[in-house]
Write a structure and sequence with these properties.
Elements (H helix, E strand, L loop, with lengths): L8 H6 L7 E5 L2 H10 L6 E5 L5 H7 L5 E7 L4 H5 L25 H7 L2 H12 L5 H13 L5 H11 L10 H12 L1 H15 E11 L2 H13 L3 E3 L5 E2 L2 H6 L7 E7 L1
Parallel strand pairs: 1-2, 3-4
Antiparallel strand pairs: 4-7, 5-7, 6-7
Helix pairs in contact: 6-9, 10-11
The structure holds S-adenosylmethionine (SAM).
Length: 262
């Protein structure tokens, strides 16, 4: 089970194993279509549109009750980031959307323009790990009263005017991360997805998770530690070597953890 198939980079590699069957799941319909096109005519590939937090039901609809492996490659894909219309990037102007699954109704614009200040502070603290977001939230509240936030570019410019840039990180980075996590309920979905993956694994089956920020990695690490049915294979997370980071800077913050079902 490739629980986050995206454009199918990992699935392509897994499909090289002879006789293997891969279920490629993604919440993003466009990704599922892309992967479907990429593997059209490949016998062992089945694309499924849905969230990994519903993995068990989705697989049981396909008549499957156990699998040899589950892979999670969390976060946003390059395709989603580079498509301004999806609203994930502060570098590309577009609507403040950020939904992985466009069948859902909650968008980043709705959160920013309608949630109470305490709720905004909470998501910026918890999901962006921003230490003192109150000043920014106050300014957001003032601004949205006269002009709602609708575009990523507008929000990024607004935040840049309020927060001093430290190092190479754009001041909007953590606010965008927090909004995306809230829109997609990413941490709840991850907890539920991990539990379902553990339940689906055969004896000797493997769970592999690649995460991109400390909130996700902490959840994965704790989950593996607390699972008596799993043997942890990575005492420390595996990170990309410098030679890979040079060519794929996005792999800089990737951490891979793996476990095997007893
Ligand atoms: C980093 S990308 C995966 C890239 C993929 N491994 C590849 O080789 O192209 C992460 C993907 O996870 C998807 N995703 C995020 N949350 C999800 C969830 N709860 N269930 C299923 N897919 C999800 C996103 O839509 C995105 O396509």
């Amino acid at each position: 089970m490739d629980a986050t198939v995206g454009s199918g980079g990992h699935s392509a590699r897994i499909l090289q194993v002879s006789g293997v069957k891969v279920f490629g799941l993604d919440k993003d319909e466009q990704a599922v279509e892309r992967a479907g096109r990429r593997f059209a005519g490949v016998n062992g590939f089945v694309a499924i549109h849905g969230g990994f937090e519903t993995m068990k039901d989705l697989l049981s609809q396909a008549g499957i009750s156990e699998v040899d492996g589950v892979l999670f490659d969390l976060g946003v894909s390059t395709e989603q980031l580079s498509d301004g219309e999806r609203g994930f990037s502060f570098q590309k102007d577009g609507p403040l959307d950020m939904r992985f699954d466009r069948r859902e109704t909650l968008t980043a614009a709705e959160i920013l323009n309608t949630w109470r200040p305490e709720e905004l502070e909470k998501i910026f603290c918890e999901y962006g790990e921003i230490k003192r977001p109150r000043r920014v939230v106050k300014a957001l509240m003032q601004r949205r009263r006269c002009q709602p936030f609708l575009r990523t570019g507008d929000l990024a410019t607004f935040l840049s005017g309020l927060i001093r840039r430290r190092g190479r990180k754009h001041p909007a980075t953590l606010f965008f991360q927090a909004l995306r996590i809230a829109v997609n309920r990413e941490l709840e979905c991850l907890r539920s997805g991990l539990e379902q993956a553990r339940a689906l694994l055969k004896k000797g089956g493997r769970l592999v998770v690649i995460s991109f920020h400390s909130l996700e990695d902490r959840i994965v690490k704790q989950f593996l530690r607390q699972s008596e049915e799993l043997i942890v294979l990575t005492r420390k997370p595996v990170v990309a070597p410098w030679s890979v980071v040079c060519y794929h800077p996005e792999s800089r913050s990737a951490k891979l953890r793996a476990a095997e079902k007893k």
